[in-house]
Give the backbone structure.
Amino acid sequence: MVASSRCASVVTAVAATATVAVIALSTTEKSLGFATGAPALRRSSVRVEGAAADGMTPIVGVASSSSQLAGADKILILIGGVAAVKLSRSRNRGRSVQSKVRVQALVATTNSAVQPVVNDETAELSFECETGNYHTFCPISCVSWLYQKIQDSFFLVIGTKTCGYFLQNAMGVMIFAEPRYAMAELEEGDISAQLNDITELRRLCTQIKKDRNPSVIVWIATCTTEIIKMDMEGIAPKLEAELDIPIIVARANGLDYAFTQGEDSVLAAMAAKCPDLPAPLPANPQPHAPLVIFGSLPDSVAKQLELELKRQGITVSGWLPSSRYADLPSVGEGVYVVGINPFLSRTAATLMRRKKCKLINTAFPIGPDGTRAWVEAICKALGIEPQGLEEREQKAWDSIKDYLDIVKDKSIFFMGDNLMEVSLARCMVRAGMTVLEVGIPYMDTRYQAAELALLTKTCKEMGKPLPRIVEKPDNYMQVQRIKEMKPDLAITGMAHANPLEAR
């Protein structure tokens, strides 16, 4: 291993006064148990070669058991860096693993457990990508909360019987209860192109308009419509003109998206339907530019966020989605937009590119610290000086002090399910927990840039190690890492909740 300059300075400082045993560990490898001290070395042999710094004698260290470290005054374990680590295990013999991740130095005496005492202020988050599938809920589940949020809408899911079974079981609403959504089941004639798509969809939408008379019909495209190349975007404008009712097409198939991104697809399609604001902005009674918030929240929670902004003298011009389709906000140049959820990157891109809005890139209002950062970013963008946010955040933390005492100094592992993992990890670090790994099905580093920066800042302020961020994680490998790391809490989807609990 060729030590980086940051590693080299630590090596030089320690080697000047003591006999040093140097062990390098790549964070991309499975945990070798160093967190529990030297006895874990009995399970493997690690060989490290490299020059430390400034003409220092090259360091060659071999450790196959804890007894071989007994002669050293101090142990220096380098985690990460630009490292090549060779493991002498039979199943990994001769394999070299390259890692370009953060550097964290841990120094301990041979008679004590390994404790982090050197924190690199320039350390950055590490991003890795595995080959696993998304392993999440189907994104058509977004219907379950969106049809309740948009009260004058009707959602038509176009798919197979499997989609219908999923909706019935996932939402717990029987079809005969006549909710404001329905399932259009594709039959053999539809798939083999023996039936005309537009004729069938015209018949269904005509019936929906007659029975329910909604303000908007939302077509939810599924995996099957993607595979058979059904031209829903071409059909929708024709039926929209015939039936005189808006039709929105949202692709919420499970081939590409995590389940929360179903909402993102619907809102992105809905953003394209928002009325355009006139080029010269009309006279604004507020002392700031128009502000539109995008993302679905229960009305009570949305009202609380509006009140928090009102404390700072900020008035919200509109929400996407709104409770009624007719109340969609007007957007255009000069309008500021801000998201409330980390999974709405497509909606943000649509508002910026097609509607020319100005996006406020900020952390998301998840946890007291996230809400404070969210409000501060909005105030800064609108040219308003925030007032009393620190006290508001502290009051929120004080109200849950009993729960904070339970989770303090505990470890947590996120397997990855809904794209909210980074925000939740940041909140848990602020609560005093140590985040071992953040698995996430998909990471948009531009949309979540402020969130990632706040996570890094929070870890350094709390004295916690930066977590690994693994995009599209392999669940089998994650389960093995959980077994080795032994976190106090694992956050996972329903697919793995029972197996992990059984362990």
